[in-house]
Amino acid sequence: MVFYEFLQICDMKYSELIPCLDRNLIYQLKLKPNLTVMEHYERHCPPPERRYNCLIPPPKGYKIPIRWPVSRDEVWKANIPHTHLAQEKSDQHWMVVDGEKIKFPGGGTHFHYGADKYIVGLAQMLKFPGDKLNNGGHIRNVLDVGCGVASFGAYLLHHDIIAMSLAPNDVHENQIQFALERGIPSTLGVLGTKRLPYPSRSFELAHCSRCRIDWLQRDGILLLELDRLLGPGGYFAYSSPEAYEQDPENRKIWNAMYSLLKRMCWKVVAKRGQTVIWSKPLSNSCYLKRDPGTLPPLCNSSDDPDASWNVSMKACITPYSARMHKERWSGLLPWPQRLTAAPPRLEEIGVSSEEFHEDTKIWHFRVIEYWKQMKSVIQKNSMRNVMDMNSNLGGFATALKDKDLWVMNVASVKMSARLKIIYDRGLIGTVHDWCEAFSTYPRTYDLLHAWAVFSEIKERGCSSEDLLIEMDRILRPDGFVIIRDKHSVINYIQKFITALRWDGWLSEVEPRTDALSGGEERVLIARKKLWTDGFMTM
């Protein structure tokens, strides 16, 4: 496909298109997803001939998003013109329409009076020092399933805790779009039939507040997925009617869930009011004491618990490997020391601690150079949601540690084993194949960093033009792309800058060669223009 001079604008009805989570596509391709196991909320990507080779327009009246930290509590209504959640959840204080803005009081289904008070309550239940849920830096990575508009994750940030707030594109449509517009780490996803795209032992705490998930279905396969994702001694905080209601139906569910988790060797460590907190075991000893034939079984030793891209969930318990650090928190230092300390799992991917520290130094220098390049146009708080499209060991995100932003670290399928290092550092990320569209709404990231991404997909025979269109879909108006790649790749991309309307500001340099340079490289930084209504009707 050639579009050097001009690229069409998609119809306005596609202003919120997510190509691989488009239910219209399911109907058009006559797919038959199993609705009872949420297959219709899982990824189904269009074949090349059905892709929209056009730029996704913003909604009418779109404005540059309100900047963090103000955005935590309010966004422009025009940017996400959906108000039904404000009416449906009015008694729970999820969100309130106020003139041109939508405001977020911090409520949730089980914390009507604010996520901040609820978080302190969880810390009190666990008897953590000072009623602080981060427990001296040992609780850092949290998975919040069925997160709503991610107010739980928003208020965790104040505690130096980062949550991967997860929800599907379901009847509460746009909840993740609201979360990202607010500047809160979040992503579209569902506990369905496929493993979530994260390695084993990625999180210290999983959370479900009235997340409307049937945890007992299919032999407890969804709880077993949480078990895979939690580290040794990790917690599951569960706020739901079956934890406290005394009617026969809720008692029946509670008893069945309690029995299942007991067979999984989880223990109730605290129960108060509407919430119960379980803890995962620290070692295999409990599993080995179970009666023969006890369900769920242990997973086969040939199963790779870190394989997560397009891998079916398994109804089995992931045992700890013999070489694993079995102490609570997997031998990781508390946050923030763990960000720069070499984690024990480096040896699993064949990287030495010396290589790890050298990588951190190189990215520290590279990021300083990027910011020097952009200093004439970058404004305070203009970047909040950042994506590293090829995260490797997390050096780029680590170099941004002193800036008030968060990074979605993306590992290619080929390099997915390295994502465990991202989580061990106290960062978050996901596995993704850049030959396909990413699972996010349009206009959700302020900065996209693509190091050798185009070279990699070109080697696999995928389309650079498709990736450019996808990056434009993800990128907010006024947002930046940093593309670091071979000379030939940068020269090729340069042809499309005007067609993409990425010529709001441009800079191209030849960077200093370092140990990570794959031959001669160039760095292209471009800024996406805010489209005018007149431009969109051209």
Q: What would you say this structure looks like, in words?
A:
44% of the residues are buried. The chain has three domains: 18-50, no CATH class; 112-327, 3-Layer(aba) Sandwich (Rossmann fold); 337-528, Rossmann fold (3-Layer(aba) Sandwich), CATH 3.40.50.150. The protein has 15 helices and 17 strands. Strand 7 (203-209), helix 6 and strand 8 (230-239) form a beta-alpha-beta unit. It starts with 22 loop residues before the first helix and ends with a helix. The radius of gyration is 23 Å and the shape is globular. The chain is of the alpha/beta class and 538 residues long. The mean pLDDT is 92. GO terms for molecular function: methyltransferase activity. Its EC number is 2.1.1.-. Keywords: Glycoprotein, Golgi apparatus, Membrane, Methyltransferase, Signal-anchor, Transferase, Transmembrane, Transmembrane helix. It comes from Gossypium armourianum.
